[in-house]
Amino acid sequence: MFKPARHGEVGGVSLQRSQQQKPLRSHDRFNLCAEMSHKIVNLRVRDVRFPTSLEQHGSDAMHTDPDYSAAYVVLDTDSGLKGFGLTFTLGKGTEIVLCAVKALAGLVIGKSLQEIVSNFRGFYRLLTSDGQMRWLGPEKGVIHLATAAVLNAVWDLWARAEGKYHAMYLSIQDPKQIVSCIDFRYITDVLTEEEALDILVKAQEGKKQREDQMLKEGYPAYTTSCAWLGYSDQQLKQLCSDALKSGWTRFKVKVGADLEDDIRRCRLIRKMIGPSSTLMIDANQRWDVAEAISWVSRLAEVKPLWIEEPTSPDDILGHAAISKALAPLGIGVATGEQCHNRVMFKQFLQASALQFVQIDSCRLGSVNENLAVLLMAYKFQVPVCPHAGGVGLCELVQHLILFDYICVSADLRNRMCEYVDHLHEHFTSPVVIQDAHYMPPKDPGYSCEMLEESGLYFKHFTFVQYKHWRGKNILKLSHKRTGLKMSKEKVFQKAWGTEINFLQSSFSVTVNRIFFFLLIKVPSFSESFDFFLILFGLSFIM
Ligand SMILES: [Mg+2]
């Protein structure tokens, strides 16, 4: 369903692609990076959306109807090798991330993989510290999401060039090279380059045994799929029962909309999973500080291990106050999925404001910035339990947590990686879960290449294609899950509603463009019409 991007797609900054379709040799890819420079000749970015809100997947106290989506980046090189990366969004606004990716494209196209990885810290800083674009962040918000998508594609390209899956490729690197990828600016007061190197060198001991252990047993996971806020009690029971049969022992429940409802749902889940299983709760930033403390205290009876995102993700001292108040109840605070950057993580750690670090593969500046956070968390001896789910987050973050265990922490106590059972079928190398553990990937790369037919790219879609995609996928989804009865009429009503909004928006933009063209290019047009009348007409249309 994806169509090949047209030449010059990103504002005319791409290079000629005449040499890029050379077939890739299959043997001994390990030496390819040394033999070939893999010059990046084009960057394509696509708007990929899935209508998950139809079945309330991903629903929580603050995001009641997410449509899991991604800004999906493909890097083309002159050798034919491609790099795939993405950043995760909730539907509306993905087009804004695409604009930011296109703005960064000029800093990427024309550079070779060798050139980038020989000074990866410099390349990271090039993307995050452009003299004009850094005003849009710096290192936060839409521009940082776009940076993550681009850098994820670069890391994917690098691992593919070496023929290794990403975590393994990271782990076989020299500690000095790993450290050279990290931008230590603003964090040297808690972690210097020398300290980071020392941690990585010491962790070399036992590395092979830990990698063998992971290949055999996998990395422990917990599930969030059973208890989205919009699910009925019948769904909760059914999904919990299924998960227990599949070997899951760690469960997370969404809370924060209604206290009495939370108490009832959490009691139900605790009863289903028994006292020996682990339960976490997640409020997705719903409360003020005092409200968080009183609300979670009422839920202490179900013995949650942590409360996740109890308040604003920016309120470091608020998290510290909540941590202090809940410590006597044995409940920790977890946060990080909307923590902007390494500097904020530094302060969360300095202020003892969290007891579980939740890194995110698409919120921070890709592997480069996540490496900094993993090393800081190790220094503060705070366990890392990554955020995952969405589109492709499980596929990406599994590499980071495997690397953390093999090459940094060497510790599994109180550690687990989130797992959500949605949309994996759209990836060429989906995650493999066995007995509630992430099994290390086997395919080369960073595991975020999507199937061609899985995407929706507005720019290349005609109305008929869009209608076909919406209808086909929504009907497929509505029939796939049990416990939800949705009529065809309701499904199409939702699909058509979105389509009509999309078409109205496109129509307005087109009409506006015609008016402006006539005003600028045709003198008689502006002379023959009253200017203010036109302005009035434009504002009415918009
Ligand atoms: Mg969460």
Automatic annotation (TrEMBL):
Asked whether the keyword Metal-binding is assigned, the reply is: yes
Q: Where is this region: Disordered?
A: 1-24
Q: Where are the transmembrane segments?
A: none
Give me the reactions it catalyses. Answer: L-fuconate = 2-dehydro-3-deoxy-L-fuconate + H2O
Mandelate racemase/muconate lactonizing enzyme C-terminal domain span:
233-329
A matching Pfam family: MR_MLE_C
Q: What is this protein called?
A: Mitochondrial enolase superfamily member 1
Q: Look up and give the organism this protein is from.
A: Astatotilapia calliptera
